[in-house]
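Exercise 7b. C-alpha cells:
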C-alpha cells in the first residue's frame, strides 16, 4: 500500500515511523514533512491546508491510505474532500472535527449527553461575561471558542487576569471574532486518552501525559508540549474503564446521533478530579507530543488500525509492556520569539536503539539545523518509567547544539511519593 501522511511535526514523524514498521507499506509520502521525516519518507512540498492539491497528489500517485496529522487540515475539510473523490483517508470530517474546533459545540454536546465535564456558560458580549465572572468568582477558566493553537485558554487566578483575558477575547478580538466559554475551575492530574474511533466503535490507546508549561515545575507560559510519558501510574485500570465507558464511548455515540459520525483519533483531555474523571477538552486528532511516546509502544500493525477505522471494520491493538518518556528540546525563547539556524550534532548516536522525532529542523548538508520552536522530541524506553527517563536523559546529553533548552522534570508526577 502507498501511504500519504499530512503534517510536519513530531507527531507526523512518529506516525511515519510507525507506518515504516508495517510490512504493508510499500511507499510513504509526507506533505510537507520535515528534515527528519525525509529520512523515512519522501517529503512533498504541499501544505497541510492545501486540500485540493493534496487530493490531486493522492489520485495521481495511487495513494491507498492518507493519514491526517494536524487539526488545521481537518478544519480545512481535507477529509470531506478526499471522501468526495472516493479516496481512503484516516481522520474525521469537518463536521465531526467540531468536537475540537468549536468549544461551544463540544460543551453543548457533553451537556446534552450527560458526559462529565466542568460547568460552563457561553458569552459573546464582554459585559455579560464580566458580570458572570464577578458572580462566580476566581479561579475561573476562559476559553476562546475556536482554534487558537493552544493559546486560547486562560486559567485566571485573579479577577484582573480574568478581565484582561475577556477584553482580549471579546473586545479586542485577539484571536479573531468569536465567543468565549467561561468554565468552572477543576483540579487534579490531567491525562490524555486517545482512542481510535469509527462511528460508535471505540478502541483505546495507552494513556499518556503531556507537559504544557515551558519550564520546570510546570511554570511559565503554555507551549505545544515540552515532553510526555506513558503509562501513568496514577491512572488505574478502573479509571481507564470509566473514561472509556462513561466518556469516550458515549461521545462517539453522541456524534453518530448528531449526524456527524467520527472516524479517526478522538483525544480525550481528561482530569482526575476529586469528584471523578471529567473532560477538559476533546481533540479530533493524535496529540503532540503524546503520539511520540504512545506509538512506540504499539506492537500491532498500524496500517490495519488506520484502514479498519477508515473502512468501518474492526481493529485489534497490541501494546508493549514497557514505558516510554519523551523530552522535547526547544529553541531558546520559545514559545515567544526564538532563535534558530544552529547546527545540531549527535542526533544519530542519540537515536540509536530509541527514537528521535523531528519537530522543527531543516537539512544542513548531511546533518540538521534548528528551524522551529520545538526542535526534536527524544524518546527513551525502559521496563518502567524510571528506566525510560534514564534512557531519555542519556540520549539528550548526546545531542550537541547551541541555544536549546529542555525540561529535566518530565514525568515528575509519576515519581512523586
Ligand atoms: P485546553 O486547551 O482546554 O486543554 O486547556 C489548556 C489547559 O488549561 C489544560 O490542559 C488545563 O491545564 C487548563 N484547564 C482547562 N480547563 C480547565 C478547567 N476547567 N479547570 C482547570 N484547568 C483547566
Ligand atoms: N498535547 C496536546 C495536544 O496535542 O493538543
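Sequence design result:
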Amino acid at each position: 500500500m502507498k501511504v500519504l501522511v499530512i503534517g510536519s511535526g513530531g507527531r507526523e514523524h512518529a506516525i511515519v515511523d510507525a507506518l515504516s514498521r508495517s510490512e504493508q507499506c510499500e511507499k510513504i509520502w509526507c506533505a510537507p514533512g520535515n528534515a527528519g521525516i525525509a529520512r523515512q519518507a519522501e517529503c512533498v512540498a504541499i501544505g497541510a491546508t492545501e486540500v485540493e492539491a493534496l487530493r490531486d497528489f493522492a489520485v495521481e500517485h495511487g495513494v491507498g491510505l492518507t493519514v491526517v496529522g494536524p487539526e488545521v487540515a481537518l478544519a480545512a475539510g481535507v477529509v470531506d474532500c478526499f471522501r468526495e473523490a472516493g479516496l481512503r483517508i484516516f481522520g474525521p470530517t469537518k463536521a465531526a472535527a467540531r468536537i475540537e474546533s468549536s468549544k461551544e459545540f463540544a460543551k453543548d454536546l457533553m451537556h446534552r449527553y450527560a458526559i462529565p465535564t466542568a460547568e460552563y456558560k457561553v458569552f459573546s458580549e464582554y459585559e455579560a461575561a464580566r458580570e458572570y465572572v464577578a458572580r462566580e468568582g476566581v479561579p475561573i477558566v476562559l476559553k476562546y471558542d475556536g482554534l487558537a493553537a493552544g493559546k486560547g485558554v486562560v486559567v485566571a487566578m485573579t479577577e484582573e487576569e480574568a478581565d484582561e483575558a475577556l477584553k482580549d477575547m471579546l473586545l479586542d478580538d485577539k484571536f479573531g471574532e468569536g465567543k468565549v466559554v467561561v468554565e468552572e475551575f477543576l483540579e487534579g492530574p490531567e491525562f490524555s486518552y486517545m482512542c481510535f474511533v469509527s462511528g460508535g466503535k471505540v478502541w483505546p490507546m495507552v494513556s499518556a501525559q503531556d507537559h504544557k508549561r515551558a519550564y520546570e515545575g510546570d511554570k511559565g507560559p503554555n507551549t505545544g508540549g515540552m515532553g510526555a510519558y506513558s503509562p501513568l501510574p496514577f491512572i488505574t485500570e478502573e479509571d481507564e474503564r470509566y473514561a472509556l465507558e462513561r466518556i469516550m464511548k458515549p461521545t462517539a455515540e453522541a456524534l453518530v446521533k448528531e449526524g456527524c459520525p467520527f472516524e479517526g483519533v478522538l483525544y480525550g483531555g481528561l482530569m482526575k478530579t476529586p469528584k471523578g474523571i471529567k473532560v477538559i477538552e476533546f481533540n479530533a486528532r493524535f496529540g503532540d507530543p503524546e503520539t511520540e511516546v504512545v506509538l512506540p509502544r504499539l506492537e500491532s500493525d498500524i496500517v490495519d488500525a488506520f484502514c479498519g477505522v477508515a473502512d468501518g471494520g474492526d481493529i485489534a491493538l497490541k501494546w508493549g509492556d514497557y514505558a516510554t518518556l519523551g523530552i522535547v528540546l526547544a529553541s531558546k525563547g520559545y514559545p515567544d520569539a526564538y532563535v534558530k539556524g544552529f547546527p545540531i550534532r549527535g542526533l544519530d548516536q542519540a537515536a540509536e536503539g530509541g527514537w528521535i522525532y523531528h519537530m522543527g529542523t531543516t537539512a544542513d548538508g548531511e546533518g540538521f539545523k534548528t528551524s522551529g520552536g520545538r526542535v526534536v522530541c527524544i524518546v527513551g524506553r525502559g521496563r518502567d518509567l524510571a528506566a525510560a527517563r534514564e534512557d531519555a536523559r542519556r540520549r539528550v546529553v548526546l545531542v550537541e547544539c547551541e541555544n536549546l533548552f529542555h525540561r529535566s522534570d518530565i514525568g515528575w508526577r509519576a515519581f512523586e511519593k
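Instructor comment: The first helix runs from residue 10 to 20. Residues 118, 141, 143, 150, 153, 155, 183-186, 190, 212, 269, 280-281 surround adenosine monophosphate (ligand 1) (CB under 6 Å).
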